[in-house]
Amino acid sequence: MEFAEKKFLVAGTGLSGIGATKLLLHKGADVILYDGNESLDSGKILGQFEDTSHISLVFGSLKKEQLQGVKAMIISPGIPCDAPFTELVKEQGIPIWSEIELAWQAGKGNVLAITGTNGKTTTTALVGKIMKDYYESVFVVGNIGTPYTSVVEDTKDDSVIVAEISSFQLETIKEFQPNVSAVLNVTPDHLNRHKTMEIYADVKMSITKNQTKQQFCILNYDDPITREMATKIPATPIFFSHTKELEEGVFLKEDTIYIKKDGIQQKVCKVDELKLLGIHNIENVMAGVGMAVWFGVPLSSVTSSVKEFQAVEHRIEYVDTIDGVAYYNDSKGTNPDAAIKGIQAMNRPTYLIGGGYDKGVLFDDWIKAFDGKVKELILLGQTAKQIADTAKRYGFYNIIFAKDLLEAVEYCAKKAKDGDAVLLSPACASWGMFKNYEERGQMFKKYVKNLKE
């Protein structure tokens, strides 16, 4: 698409909004940069751009006349698609794009795109490493922290873009077409925005909607929702499984990961050769292997990269052992299913720190997954009472309320004994107490470090 001398509306002044604006300006477009917050400092926002002659700032309400001539609106993922101002945009027949869609329209190269409720960041990082170990021009972007739009100008025809994509970003893709996609799993999350599991699953599946039969989607055979997607998607489905030996795909058999492609079975590696903990990470590895091999990377190169790959920060990350107590940071466990993976990875009696922002999900399955491992549950944040009530319904009463994360860590340090573990795996988002899960994880690690000092 040509962008020069065309007008675009960018909604949101966060990282993705600023990235989208910079890309559009570089392409010669005019930009209306909009934010509903009237109290923003226009000087600070404009100070992020070298040339502001083609930017118009609009704060507060958006008016119909301001939309004349706008070709598309790029919406930040944190803004719901049913926000009041979006109705005005839709009435004018203006298409609404995610930042991912804009980057794909403006960029070059081959795209490997990963979505799912859990495991996205680890799988994206792993696929990024595999690609960087084999190709020269590789970019790892999206929900993992680097806006796709920020690298577009550096992409070439032979570039490989590995993108972690959230359901919020998938809501507003139009023509986005990855060479290989993956839907890792679908479990309850973000239902305050998507309303039902059916809608949420359909949004996840939309990562494939523009793919062709000559392209591939890697799916989790062990998840009934993603297994059913194989019958609906336009791409060729390739499964991974830790429970079933597959006729085609990637699977775990005893202690070894295998791949079977075009009728030929090959060993990838043994599980104990991985530097990752937990069955969920074996699933992430199998998904990454499938994406890489069906994209065309030789298995020998894939295996070498997989064996070298280190765990992602904030995902069942070992912090330290103090007085015989092992501390683990799983701040990225922002929903019950992710937090279940954290509990399952523990091989010690565990003091579990949980709670946070309420995303409208239930905690029953998380509590049921304690499986005798959790000695005490230390709760904080908006969801503390809801989680405690749920735990009591299942007969778990060893519950403590903490006013903040520092108090929770200090309590655990006093109570835990040699051979125990302390696990931060909140099953909730961090909003309201921290900027994001990264800040929450960093603070946890800081408090643990302070214990040692």
Please tell me about this protein's structure.
- This protein is α/β, with parallel strands linked by helices.
- The protein contains 16 helices and 20 strands.
- Strand 2 (30-35), helix 2 (42-46) and strand 3 form a beta-alpha-beta unit.
- The longest helix is centred in the middle third of the chain and has 17 residues, at 279-295.
Global structural class: alpha/beta
Using the alpha-carbon principal axes, give the shape.
Answer: globular
Helix content: 25-40%
Radius of gyration: 23 Å
Q: How would you sum up the major sheet?
A: 9 strands, mixed
Spell out the blueprint of helices and strands.
Layout: E1 7-11, H1 15-26, E2 30-35, H2 42-46, E3 55-59, E4 70-75, H3 84-91, E5 96-98, H4 99-106, E6 110-115, H5 120-134, E7 138-142, E8 160-164, H6 167-170, E9 180-183, H7 191-194, H8 197-205, E10 216-220, H9 224-229, E11 236-241, E12 249-253, E13 256-261, E14 264-270, H10 279-295, H11 299-308, E15 317-322, E16 325-329, H12 336-345, E17 350-354, H13 364-368, E18 374-379, H14 384-393, E19 399-401, H15 405-415, E20 421-424, H16 437-452
Parallel strand pairs: 1-2, 1-4, 2-3, 4-5, 6-8, 6-9, 7-8, 9-10, 10-11, 11-12, 16-20, 17-18, 17-20, 18-19
Antiparallel strand pairs: 12-13, 13-14, 15-16
Helix pairs in contact: 5-10, 5-11, 10-11, 15-16
